[in-house]
Amino acid sequence: MKMKAKSLTLNLMEEEQSVFPIKTFNDQLWHRRLGHFYHAGLMYMQKHNLVRSVPKLENKSTNCATCQYGKQARKPFPQTTWRATYKLQLVHTNVKGLQRIASLNGNIYYIIFIDDNSKFYWIFVLKFKYEVANLF
Question: Strand 20-21 relative to strand 121-126: parallel, antiparallel, unpaired?
Fold first, then answer.
């Protein structure tokens, strides 16, 4: 199988991957080769002959998905100001389990209670998940 003058693309940003032959425009190719440089800068370099061996580029900008992902920013998480002011006003809890290795007594689950005010915590081990309601 000859691969001369053919290229394949693999987009790692996509959930499903497929490989297919692709034609790449010079603008897109040089945009990637120069580290996702902005289009007006590419046109400036071409106009003033600042880079050798660059073919004729089109005067229209292209949409680059990688650049769009790079420009995205998330808003910071909101700061919560409410904390418990007395003991047991707010208790955080979590059930963890189905441990691969059971304890000596055959327990494979555990539940943890954390008091928000004092940061005191209790850990209880359980054999079955239905024991949580009685323990609480």
Answer: unpaired
DSSP letter string over 25-70? -HHHHHHHHTTS--HHHHHHHHHTT-STTPPPPPSS----HHHHHH
Please name which of 62, 73, 70 lies closest in space to residue 30, comparing C-alpha atoms.
62
Query: Does residue 87 carry a pLDDT above 90?
Result: yes
pTM score, two decimals? 0.42
Sign of the Cα pseudo-torsion (43, 48, 54, 56, in order) = positive
Provide the β-strand partners of residue 21.
8
Give me the residues paired with residue 97 across strands. 109
pLDDT score of 11 more than 90: no
